[in-house]
């Protein structure tokens, strides 16, 4: 399963899936009839891919790492806490924050489709929507994590959460060591998209 930051259905040389082909056909038809402006679509996609996600989520995590009161608010009412710093909208109405600890590692999947918290993470990566990830994340989460380069201690439990249309999750990864005294802005640079899904860890300051 590809899991870098540049997953696209239309990458050069990549075969389009049946779903991607149908989407392209539908888009072409809507453009042809004048219902959709391709430029507007490009702006929307660019906004969610580069301006929103996953920068917003990284700022939420960094705030939680540096502000105990905000972290406590996130635990109690993630929707309100995230909205308070300006990140709200469709696909982010009902948020739950999952805090990773040495004892528990949280991982998010949508087993039915691709429910995902757009206001904090932007557009979901291709692998998140794929059937292999959606099925295997539930059945063999440690094996999936290993494919993402994450090996957890035997004593750390892996808890998998199923995102739905009613509830979406944001994983708060553990703060890396060696970051004492860092500002929230500096810390946000260590927070990756995958770490907020649970298929990765926050980057090391090195």
Account of the 3D structure:
- The chain folds into two domains: 18-48, no CATH class; 56-197, Nitrile hydratase alpha /Thiocyanate hydrolase gamma (Nitrile Hydratase, Chain A).
- The protein has eleven helices and four strands.
- It has helices at 18-32, 38-52, 55-66, 68-76, 78-84, 118-121, 126-129, 131-139, 141-147, 184-188, 193-197, and strands at residues 95-99, 104-109, 157-162, 168-172.
- The strands form two sheets. Strands 1-4 form a two-stranded parallel sheet. A two-stranded parallel sheet has the order 2-3.
- The longest helix has 15 residues, at 18-32.
- The radius of gyration is 18 Å and the shape is globular.
- The two termini are 27 Å apart.
Oligomer: single chain
CA radius of gyration: 18 Å
* Total domain modules: 2
User: For the terminal residues, how far apart are their CA atoms?
Assistant: 27 Å
CATH fold-level topology of the largest domain = Nitrile Hydratase, Chain A
* Secondary-structure element pattern, one letter each: HHHHHEEHHHHEEHH
């Amino acid at each position: 399963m590809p899991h870098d930051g540049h997953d696209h259905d239309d990458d050069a040389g990549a075969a389009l899936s049946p779903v991607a082909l149908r989407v392209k056909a539908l888009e072409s038809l809507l453009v042809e009839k004048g219902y959709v402006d391709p430029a507007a679509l490009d702006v929307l996609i660019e906004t969610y891919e580069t301006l929103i996600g996953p920068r917003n989520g990284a700022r939420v995590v960094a705030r939680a790492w540096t502000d105990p009161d905000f972290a406590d608010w996130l635990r109690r009412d993630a929707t309100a806490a995230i909205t308070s710093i300006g990140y709200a909208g469709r696909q982010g109405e009902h948020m739950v924050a999952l805090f990773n600890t040495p004892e528990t590692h949280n991982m998010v999947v949508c087993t039915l489709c691709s429910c995902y918290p757009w206001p904090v993470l932007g557009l979901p990566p291709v692998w998140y929507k794929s059937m292999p990830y959606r099925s295997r994340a539930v059945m063999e989460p440690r094996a999936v994590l290993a494919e993402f380069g994450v090996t957890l201690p035997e004593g750390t439990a892996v808890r998998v959460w199923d995102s739905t249309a009613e509830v979406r999750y944001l994983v708060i990864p553990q703060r890396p060591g060696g970051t004492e005294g860092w500002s929230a802005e500096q810390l946000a640079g260590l927070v990756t998209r995958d770490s907020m899904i649970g298929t990765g860890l926050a980057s090391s300051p090195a």
